Amino acid sequence: MNLKQLSHMLSLSQTTVSRALNGYPEVSEETRRRVMDAAKRHGYRPNPSARRLATGKSGMIGYVLPTGAAVDIDPHFVEFLSGLGDYARAHELDLVLSPADADDEETTYRRIVANRQVDAVYLSSPRPADRRLALVNTLGIPFIVHGRSEGFDFDYPYLDIDNEGAFHEAARLLIQLGHKRLALINGNERETFAIHRERGMRRALAASGLTLGERHIRSMTMTEENGYRAARRLLEEDEPPTAIVCSSLIMALGVVRAVRDLGLTIPGDLSLVAHDDVFPWLRPENFPVPLSTTRSSIRLAGARVAERLAARISGLEEGARGEVWPVDLVVRGSVAGAPV
Amino acid sequence: MNLKQLSHMLSLSQTTVSRALNGYPEVSEETRRRVMDAAKRHGYRPNPSARRLATGKSGMIGYVLPTGAAVDIDPHFVEFLSGLGDYARAHELDLVLSPADADDEETTYRRIVANRQVDAVYLSSPRPADRRLALVNTLGIPFIVHGRSEGFDFDYPYLDIDNEGAFHEAARLLIQLGHKRLALINGNERETFAIHRERGMRRALAASGLTLGERHIRSMTMTEENGYRAARRLLEEDEPPTAIVCSSLIMALGVVRAVRDLGLTIPGDLSLVAHDDVFPWLRPENFPVPLSTTRSSIRLAGARVAERLAARISGLEEGARGEVWPVDLVVRGSVAGAPV
DNA sequence: AGAGACTTCCAAAGCGCTTTGGCTGCTTTG
DNA sequence: CAAAGCAGCCAAAGCGCTTTGGAAGTCTCT
Q: Where is the HTH lacI-type domain (chains A, B) (predicted)?
């Protein structure tokens, strides 16, 4: 059933039927009702390919997925996706994943924009002065950044959590508990979120006249193994930290293991706080010692990004609105006063 | 730059240029070269929307993503995706994720097929007599199942690992080590993979005149917490199992925690084998006691599915070819002889 | 040399929608 | 009462590609 058949059936022109269906004003209410009825009754659905060719709109949002033999997609991605799906499902909005060589995402961005494959895109894991962001901005496709970048002379729309504030609070708590030697096990230091977290922690330390020694900060991809290694290295120093703030729950697993291997205990010898993106399959309260966390649901962020992307596509949202979500600090058994 | 301009520039018809570009035989080699050259020089790329409308092919593969407030996307998904991306990237093949209400995926399947949004789809996590599979089969869109179903009167193309064989081997090893009371902590019992794993284990037990008691098998979604609960319940019985086979590394984390909480040790009191889908961020060799596993890279499976999907789209693969990958049994420190 | 068979190209008809630029006929206005 | 305005509809022209159904030119064969 296509438009031609439907309009013929109604003895109307394709123009009128199309307009009736798309809510244009120059068609009488009665006609509109007739058309709507008939469309529903016959299960008419406009062919998206045709509509696309005519309008240039695809009704899909895009994401360029960095891939490569040495590239692992972040497990956070799937949670974000769950959230995105929560919104998109209700709006028949599909997501196009365009795998790209992690070393050359630009080509792919250009392709999907030139091809008008999607109406909007979102970027994630941005770095300072991220070239993708600049590119997408000049290409003129609606977009939203999940996270933030820095060092541009233009503003852009984003959704981020208050990483700096979160780690500031975490560090402040530990300092209040008497800890003087804090360490940070961070994610990839080139990504903005990691920079912000470090900044937040340094700020809290500075406020008490403390510093974060170079040796007391480790940055690496967030795997259990890296968490373990970082923790061991930190704890085997001459003056080991008495508290660690860790950028991910997965790394925290490794930290816990290292602590055990060294015959230490949490929170007796070491206080531990980790950032929790809220995975359904790994919960901080279920750690051997319930883990204190800075918590922010990445799934909710996914839903919100989808919502804003949809708003941008339909012109409801404009400009470079940045949105920063506060982060909860959830205190559990893994923190205690500094050992004497 | 569109076809019209390009052909005008070459003083050829659109027909000829189109054919030259698409490798049709009715154009001379010389002309083809001229056309190809010009196309490359001017960066001509056919408009996919137009091509789609004309051919009905979209150059994309689809996946219906079950979502819902109570639905969590499996973290395995992201690894599978990495693999898919590995292949797709090199072939400019995009993946369309269509979020659907987990209770009504059918509507979405019908929509993406009717709309010709994608050239092929893949299904995952199939159950016996899975309705999606029957649907997709009748809808006539090329597809591949990742995993297997059962109870159909038709064959279908799939890629699966030998879950039954893997768990058969794991159980056999444990039996050989003298274990008589084995337990299984499985995934969702309604999914085929879980059924196959149970079957494999039962077969191994039966071969030695043993059985798997009803109480010795737990099925649930694969979270750390569920692993913990299942293990506790098992180990607190009167006659607790001396060996557990576990369907996922994430659950195994919980098992390890439970064992610790009960003051038991691995492998002294309990031998443990888990299935490992190969996550980059959680490795069995890094467990407190290195974990024995049945190992199969889900990422490789993703790449293979993409490859076969592409082959099906281009007609290179046909029929209901099933592909079953053997699974490695990797023995590490978490297994030992049964306690006396 | 003429018929048939290729080879190589082209004009034009789709694909199914949106949108432009009218065209009616009726109501309002000075 | 003529001019103007407006609501409501339509024919047809795109959007940019593929594909059908020739047509012209070249070869081959009897």
A: 1-55
Q: Which helix (H) or strand (E) holds B36?
A: helix B29-41
Q: Which residue has the tokens 């070269």?
A: B33
For chain A, how many residues are written?
340
- CA–CA gap between residue B318 and residue B302 (Å, rounded): 19
Coil, strand or helix at A182: strand
Shortest Cα distance, chain A CAs vs residue B62, angstroms: 9
Q: Which two tokens stand for residue B247?
A: 């369907």
pTM of the model as a whole: 0.94
Q: In strand D, which positions have an atom below 7 A from any protein CB?
A: 7-22
Distance CA B94, CA B84 (A): 10
C-alpha dihedral (B235, B240, B244, B250), degrees to nearest 10: -10
Cα A3 to Cα A17: distance, rounded to the nearest angstrom: 8
What tokens appear for A300 in the block? Answer: 């909710």
Residues from chain A that touch B224, judged by Cβ atoms under 8 A, are 281-283, 286
Quote the CA–CA distance of A147 and A127 in Å, as a whole number: 9
DSSP A271: E
Contacts of B277 in chain A (CB under 8 A): none
Q: Over range B77-91, report the average pLDDT.
A: 96
Contact flag A82-B60 (C-beta cutoff 8 Å): no
Contact B97 A99 (CB under 8 A): no
Summarised one tens digit per residue, pLDDT across range A113-136 is 999 999 999 999 999 999 999 999
Rounded-to-integer distance, Cα B151 and Cα B130, Å: 9
What one-letter code names the amino acid at A64?
Answer: V
Q: Is residue B340's pLDDT more than 90?
A: no
List of chain A residues whose C-beta atoms are within 8 Å of the C-beta of residue B253: 253, 282
Q: Which of residues 106-145 of A touch strand D (CB under 7 A)?
A: none
Give the three-class secondary structure for B83: helix
